[in-house]
Each structure stands twice: as structure tokens, then as C-alpha cells.
Amino acid sequence: MDVVLVGLPGSGKSAVGRRLAQRHHVPFMDLDERIEARAGRRIPEIFEEEGEAAFRAHERAAIGELGEADASTAVSRVVATGGGAVVDPRNRWALYRGRMAVWLDGRPEVLAQRLRRSPNVRPLIVGRDPVAAVRDLAARRERFYAAAAVRINGVAEVHGVLGAVQLAVTQPRTSATKLLDAETKLGRYVLGEHVATDEIAATLRRLDARRAVIVSEPGAWAAAGAGIADGLATRGWSVEPVMLPQGEDAKRLSVIEDAARELARLRVERRDPMVAIGGGALGDAAGFLAATFLRGIPLIHVPTTLVAQVDSSIGGKTGVDLPEGKNLVGAFHQPAAVVIDVALLATLPERDRRAALGEAVKMAVLGDERLFALLEADGDAIARGETSVFERGTVAELVERAGWAKVEIVSGDEREQAPDGGRILLNLGHSLGHAVEAAGGYRDLLHGEAVAYGLRAACAIGEAVGVTPVGRSRRIGALLDALALATEPLPYALDTVLDHLAADKKHAAGRLRWVLPTESGVEIRDDVPEDVVARAAGGLLAAGSPA
Ligand SMILES: NC(=O)c1ccc[n+]([C@@H]2O[C@H](COP(=O)([O-])OP(=O)(O)OC[C@H]3O[C@@H](n4cnc5c(N)ncnc54)[C@H](O)[C@@H]3O)[C@@H](O)[C@H]2O)c1
Asked: Ligand 1 centre and the CA of 358: distance in Å?
């Protein structure tokens, strides 16, 4: 087994790593030294001459050279990483999966003190107030370090640190790999592979739960819920499953009433958490139940579809449908935790995975160039559920990039009140997306498929009003083509689509705000002429554009 030491600069990774390797008579590898050897230069020179991006490329290559993880239980190698190595999701996948990641933690003040005495030049800290610089790095990186299997106070006396690592490596290993662990304004956000049961149990313990009340539906229960329930029972939890109907049928007030009565019969109290296991429909309904039962009980979201993992479980929107429209009754209710296990996505039907990529393209267009490139290179393989994209960490990176971007946007604007730049950004592709989804009676198109049509329309509108460069619009179109999203003209009448858009406009107090792609992000415009909108909508339809 490889032991991988991670942590901020000055936390003692190299010193502890060297001693640990000596103690076990195994090789020690210092990634920074490896990078310097590959590049034939010191790290500050690489930064100065080639920039941080080039350094990160060397770093990725050095991590790649670690090879396959060694499954033995004895320590076979010790690896010390550079402080920033874990920022890249794919590096974290390589460093944490199948290896034992140990976070050497320490207070920024102490680390800064150590750095002042260190002969090594740290490019991201040099020239700045060291305490402020280390604090800043700590805030930005804590969620990456916190996902390591073990956390140890690295600035304690070295024998103590070695003893603690020693104790950790003798603990039984599991197949779980945590990749991200963050305390956010929207609750705790945990992402990993095979982490669901352990992380639900840990969250229940934190919440002082007496039992596990699970709300799920037959599809998600068969694919994921039953296994998780068994795992919780094995860990000593008494499990109470409450089943809602599968799919959009869960989002009805009568279903909420029945389920609330079941919770009442189970004598669920205000401090009893609910674990919601399922996709977006289940999460919306269970979330609304949690928001309203006893005026609100704690909620743990365990999203099992790609839509739910990158979108619906994040942000606190819950709700049910009425015959008059979707999501008309609901509440904001932030979960205590969102536990995202990418291994649960393997059983999802291809159409659901592919449709969810419509939302992922939206997040990429909002300004994540790496996500854009990932979708261009591997989006179709992800949609098809190829084993290789799960094994290489591509799916995990997609879920992290798209989901975390939503965490950041919503954290700045929880109740959708920011005039610009807040939650409204998430509406990219949604105005006309909603309109075509509604025109199909919510039966023809999955939500993400409709968003893909909306994205094409946003590009057309953006080009017409001079916001979207033609090259950008073409690149977005080519990506949607490659993902086989929104490629067929829709069989609806233009008037029907525009009527649904007008209904949306009413909700927006008569003023539709269009989120339109720019070269590297988006711009919001509320002055788009109606004929431009009609032409863009017509461009999606078999009947064609208006004259
Ligand atoms: N609250 C929000 O912010 C938000 C955002 C986007 C979408 N939504 C809502 O999400 C819903 C759509 O989401 P969805 O597509 O996930 O809905 P869903 O919950 O109906 O799941 C889709 C299907 O997948 C099945 N399934 C679930 N997990 C599975 C697994 N691991 N393997 C195999 N099958 C599995 C389900 O049984 C269901 O049949 C809509 O109701 C939409 O309004 C909400």
C-alpha cells in the first residue's frame, strides 16, 4: 500500500515521509523532487520561466508515473505531494484511490512560522504576508485535504506524528475513496466513489440520529437504496424505509400527505434526520416533505442520478407539481449534507446520463474551460457509461466540476435575489428549454434534453444581438452534436412554444432576462427583441422559423 502525504506547505510532508519510509524500509518519493528531476530545474524556475500551468503539467505527469495502486496491506512506498497537487480532481483521483491518503494538518500561523525558516522558496507564498498567504491557501484547499482518509496534526512533535500515521496504516482498508469533503453554506458536501453508506452513517452520527429514516422510490431503491440500507443495518442502524412512487409521480401533494402520515406513524421527531435516496424527482419530493414535516426536519440528500448529482441535490430547492404546472408548490430547505457517490451512476439508463450532460454543458459554458474540454473529449463515453471513464476518474471530475460550480453560485445567492451574476446564471438555456419541455407535455423530452435545445437557442439569440461570437456558438453546437443532444427538429408549433415562454415571462414580472454565451462566460440581457426570440425558437422546430 502506498501512503500519500498531503497538506499545506510547511506541514512536514517531506520530513515525515522520509522517516516513515525509513521505518518501513520502503522507498520514499517526493513528488516535487521528481518534478525537478524531470524538468532539470528547480520549482521556482519552472514557475518563473514557464508559469504555474506548465508546473501543473509536470506535476500531473509525475503523479501518472506512480502507476497502479498497490493493493497489499503493508506499507510499500511513501509519497509526499506538493501542497497544490490535490487541487486538480484527476490528481486527487490518482493519489487517493486505492492508496492511503494522510492529511498533515496545522494552524496557518504555525505553518507560516515554519516557512519563514525554511530554505525552500514557495512560489505561491513568496513576496506575500506568509500568515495571510497560508490562510488563503487553507481556505481554498481545505475541502481537498479533508477528503484524505486520515487527518493528523502535522505540526506536533515528529515521533507523535509518525505514531499516529503508524496507527492509521494498521486500520482495515475499504474500497471507499473520498475525493471532496466541504462544509458549505448549503450543508456538508461530500463526493467520492463507494462512499455512500459510510458517509451517511457518519452524518447520522454527527446529527445525533437514533435511526435511519430513508425516503426512496422503487427504481432508486433497487439500484442503490437497498444496498445502502443493508450496509447501515450491518453498521448497527435501525432502518425505516418510506417509499414514494417512481419518477415525476412522486411530486404530487397527495403523495406528500401519505408519506407525512407514515412519518407520523413512525413517530419521527423534529431532530430525526431523513435520508433521501434517489434522483431529482425523488429529491424534490422528499426535500419538500423534509421542509414541511414538523415545519422542517434535517435532510441528507443521496443523489443517485447524474441530474441529481450535478444539479438538483444542490441548492435547497424542493417542490411538487400541480396540474397547472411543474414545481408550483415548494420551499427552500438546505440539506444538512449532500452525499454524492459516483459509483451509483453505473446502473443509470444511457438516456438519463446523456440528458444530464445538457446541464453539464451549461455549467461548462458558464466559464469552466476544463469541463468544456472534458466533455469534448469524453462526454459521449460518459453518456454511454463506458467503464474506462469511471475507472479514469473522468465521471468523478465531471460531477465535481459541475456540482461545485453550482455550490459556489448558489452560496452567493441562496434565494435567487441577486440582480446579476447569482442564481440567474443557472438559467442559461432554461427559458426556451422550459418552453419546449412544456410544449412536449413533459413527456417527450427529459429536462437536460430540453436544456440542450435551450442552449442552441441561447447561442442563436446571442449571435443575433452581438453577444455570442460565431466561433463560440459553433463550438457549443459541435459539442451538443457530439453528445447527440438537441439534434432533431422538434414537432411543435411555434405559437405553442412562444405561449409557454410567455407564461415564464409572466412569472418574471414581464421581463425575461436572457443569459447569453460570450467568448468565455455569459452576459445577461433583458432587451432581446421578440422577433429575435421567435426566430431562435423557430430554429429548433421542424415547422421552421417565422417569416
Ligand atoms: N431542485 C432542483 O434544483 C432541480 C434541478 C433540476 C431538476 N430538478 C427535478 O429533477 C427531476 C428530474 O431528475 P431525475 O431525472 O433524476 O428524476 P428521477 O428521480 O425521476 O430519476 C429518473 C429515473 O431514474 C431511476 N433511477 C434513479 N437512480 C437510479 C440509478 N442509480 N440507477 C438506475 N436507475 C435509477 C429512477 O427510478 C427514475 O425512473 C425533475 O422533477 C426536475 O424538476 C430539480
From this structure: 14
